């Protein structure tokens, strides 16, 4: 999968992409993330990318010219029709299902805003979709872009070693995940449930299903409501 990120601050994103699973995916050629520093495309002699909003108001707005030119440059490196996604608190919520959907794309262009936001003409003319990672506001789109890249890349074949790992993950079946335990079986008097040591696979699966349902009912009852609503349609 190839992803281009348009940002004012690529240096804050690169270390995360170089580490752990994403780093290995990059080295293996399974995930390619390229940066287009928006400031490089500014025609302002001081390389400014922001200005005050028309009509007044607090904060600064990212100006159209650098972003238009950065998107044009990124598109030249992608296939025609590559989706441009703007990371925005006003967008569609990024969920497990949305991440799986986006993973079907072979290429994506991500636009990270900053300051108070971006000029609306950028959204109207260049952006295919706005994506939000939650109902809160951050100082920029770099963290949301990393969240999107991380969640989407896990569905790219080969990025996660065991492809079956997705089957039991939280949200895959509309439930949160069951508790996990590893060695030692007794840590300072804290013991692992006997059923997990029994070797009885049917009982283990039943215990895991019960615990997943119990956890979901306690912490995220809304997921159960959605699951029941979808099953009744």
Q: How would you describe this structure to a colleague?
A:
The protein is α/β, with parallel strands linked by helices. 36% of the residues lie in helices and 18% in strands. The chain has 2 domains: 2-153, SPOUT methyltransferase, trefoil knot domain (Alpha/beta knot, 3-Layer(aba) Sandwich); 171-231, Trp Operon Repressor, Chain A. A 5-stranded parallel beta sheet has the order 2-1-6-5-8. Strand 9 (186-187) and strand 10 form a beta hairpin. The mean pLDDT is 93.
What's the gist of this structure?
36% of the residues lie in helices and 18% in strands. With 233 residues, the protein is α/β, with parallel strands linked by helices.
Brief descriptors of the model:
3-stranded mixed sheet, 5-stranded parallel sheet, 233 residues, Alpha/beta knot, 36% helix, elongated, alpha/beta, 10 strands, Trp Operon Repressor, Chain A
Ordered list of secondary-structure elements with their pairings:
Layout: E1 2-7, H1 14-17, H2 20-27, E2 32-37, E3 50-51, E4 61-62, H3 64-75, E5 83-93, H4 96-102, E6 107-112, E7 117-118, H5 120-126, E8 129-132, H6 142-153, E9 186-187, E10 190-191, H7 194-197, H8 201-219, H9 221-231
Parallel strand pairs: 1-2, 1-6, 4-7, 5-6, 5-8
Antiparallel strand pairs: 3-4, 9-10
Helix pairs in contact: 4-6, 8-9
CATH level 1 name of the largest domain: Alpha Beta
State the major sheet: 5 strands, parallel
Q: What do we call the CATH topology of the largest domain?
A: Alpha/beta knot
The count of helical stretches stands at: 9
Helix content: 25-40%
| CATH architecture term of the largest domain | 3-Layer(aba) Sandwich
Average of pLDDT:
93
Low-confidence stretches: none
Structural class: alpha/beta
* Rounded Rg: 22 Å
Order of helices and strands: EHHEEEHEHEEHEHEEHHH
The count of β-strands is: 10
